[in-house]
Design goal:
heterotetramer, A: 110 residues, alpha/beta, 5-stranded mixed sheet, C: 138 residues, alpha+beta, 5-stranded antiparallel sheet, 5 strands, globular, binds adenosine-5'-diphosphate
Amino acid sequence: MNISTEDKEKYTIIELEGEVDLSCSPDARNSILGVLEGDKSLLVDLAKVSYIDSSGVASLVEGYQTAKKQSLKFGLVGVSDAAMSVLKLARLDQVFPIFDSYEEYEKKDD
Amino acid sequence: MNISTEDKEKYTIIELEGEVDLSCSPDARNSILGVLEGDKSLLVDLAKVSYIDSSGVASLVEGYQTAKKQSLKFGLVGVSDAAMSVLKLARLDQVFPIFDSYEEYEKKDD
Amino acid sequence: MTIETLFEIQFPAKAERLCLIRDLVKRTAEEAGCCSELSDRIVLAVNEACMNVIQHAYQGDELGVIMLEMLNNEGKLHFRLVDYAKPIDLSSVKPRNLDDLRPGGLGTHFINEIMDECDMGHLEEGKGNYLEMIKKIS
Amino acid sequence: MTIETLFEIQFPAKAERLCLIRDLVKRTAEEAGCCSELSDRIVLAVNEACMNVIQHAYQGDELGVIMLEMLNNEGKLHFRLVDYAKPIDLSSVKPRNLDDLRPGGLGTHFINEIMDECDMGHLEEGKGNYLEMIKKIS
Ligand SMILES: Nc1ncnc2c1ncn2[C@@H]1O[C@H](COP(=O)(O)OP(=O)(O)O)[C@@H](O)[C@H]1O
Ligand SMILES: Nc1ncnc2c1ncn2[C@@H]1O[C@H](COP(=O)(O)OP(=O)(O)O)[C@@H](O)[C@H]1O
């Protein structure tokens, strides 16, 4: 798995790439919680995720809940088919704010 | 493994593609001996071979020897790195006629 | 009636080994005739089962060993996962209520959703635990 | 001194299974630190050893089972290949003279060229045969 972070004016992007499994989901979790500790809204880009297991999903849930508590925005962007089918199985596709693109997020955020 | 055969005026080309291993080398052998039975010279194209084991190499040796007995030409063309390192290990790179391209073969054949 | 053993593998109970196991299961499932989508789901379930052994049965002890066996019983894939950890509390093995959102508690839900049959139990003489999962593929 | 078990797999003695075994060995060798070129050579040798079990020890009997164990002993990869066929004639296991060109007789040559150490023998009580191969990788 690769993690890259990009700071925008109003939010931070964390892009996860590759297989988000038990061997690396703690890293994803740390990055996610790190951004939220810095009091920034967060979009997690899942476009390049080829596999995600329940530990990766748990990191997203934790991010979502932490953001909520701190009244920060949290969303998923460009969710790959592989990731979406796992979110659906967990019935989280109805819980997470999911955006096709950053533009879509920015429009809705206005 | 994929086998494709192309008839030229003076020779036939058999192109092997993928992994030439014990599960499919009998098919390669049959194709090779089939062409030689038809009294045609044969070039085996190994450009797209990603793996070859000793059973695949044995089919080439058998083709080479059969062609020799029948006074037909037999050569290898565009040998991939993967195939070449196995031929070298078998010290067959000095035995088989090896050509970079069909043009090279045709020039030498004149 | 023929049961075909596809493989039986033993590997250390480490998260780093799971990627390899996923590949092995995916390829074997596809060779047994699963489409890519079905094999992805099967891989997810088997991966979750292995994760649970690593995290809960062995509680992170990387000296633990996991055995995974995969069989094809006439169009039904059988998985048998064995650990040699202390006998687990079988009654604790259940997913969270999906409406009660919290991190975790999804693995057993994934397994139950994906597999047709699951059976978990203790090995003889307190030697460990097993999980058997069956998935019809044709 | 630590010996790390990487995996132990049992699989049917069929040519169709070899592709999967090659993938497993390649990935595991690379994770253990081999470069692509070295892992390709190791894969070739292990594949030839499995082929010999399929063709010569089991003589094509696809009900036969092969066990392959891969260990990392501080920078030396150890492979142990076991079959449960009749005890083989150990003196017959040798490559052809490379100058005496004929189809076949290369597998043992590849194994000997690639591996640093090889040891073949019978299991206790005529239960089968083993081949141990060691390759230094660092
Ligand atoms: N192999 C196992 N050994 C022991 N306990 C298990 C095992 N699998 C599951 N459990 C128990 O079932 C619970 C739910 O598991 P699961 O749905 O996979 O979610 P999670 O692993 O995230 O807690 C675990 O928290 C654990 O208590
Ligand atoms: N695992 C084995 N069991 C029995 N005989 C073997 C085994 N491996 C090799 N041999 C013997 O050694 C010979 C040489 O093997 P090898 O060099 O691999 O070439 P090939 O398999 O093409 O004959 C074989 O023909 C066979 O007689």
